[in-house]
Amino acid sequence: RHMIGQLAEPVQNRIRALRHNQLQQVRISEQFFREVYELERRFYGQSCALFDARRDILEGSVEPPIQTEKTWPEDPQDALYLDFGNNEELRQLRQKLAPVTPTTLGVPRFWLTVFQNVPLLSELVQDHDEPLLESLMDVRLAYDQDSYMVIFQFRPNSFLHDSSLLLTKRYFLQHSADPEYPFLFEGPEIVRCEGCHIHWRDGSNLTLQTVESRRRNRAHRVTKVMPRESFFRF
């Protein structure tokens, strides 16, 4: 502002006009991103039947027809194929996996594997979260006008009470530009989120850990329950 104030008045007026022009462009961008969001809502609804079919295959309640197309051809000369065959770390990892036989239903550990291979999610998943995530059977979205909710559906397990087999986390969006900094607008922004209450089974809360410590000059140990990092810190 100080620099602009040093300019001749006609130039200042042109800059004010350009600022107004840019604000009009921001309003158009707001409308664009709002319509993109509405398109996402509409097309997600059209995909729900496919998500139902995916869940049924993953859970083993439906056996799909035999697929004749070879989707992943293996080239013995491919560098990735060779690395997979010779990599000791990968070989040890495969040995840790539960055996999958022709009688295994569905696709075991599907969602856990997805989370482990998506960088943004893998950072959130701790080792102690994995046994529960193995019970994750479906992930869905539910859109509202200014928020969306991620829904995690679990099969019965030893961690969650039966009343908490459906966990949700809602994200609230701001679709308009910040009045103080309108030119920084790049699309909808998450302004806050709300997680549901999780009803854990006794002694199975993955977000807590029991820590023992010995007090100075005392022989006995003190036990404390402390929070710990977890994917389930909603």
Automatic annotation (TrEMBL):
Highest taxon, organism lineage: Eukaryota
Protein's recorded name: CG3708
Database matches in Pfam families: NAP
Gene Ontology biological process: nucleosome assembly
Transmembrane segments: none
This protein's GO CC annotations: nucleus
Family, per entry: Belongs to the nucleosome assembly protein (NAP) family.
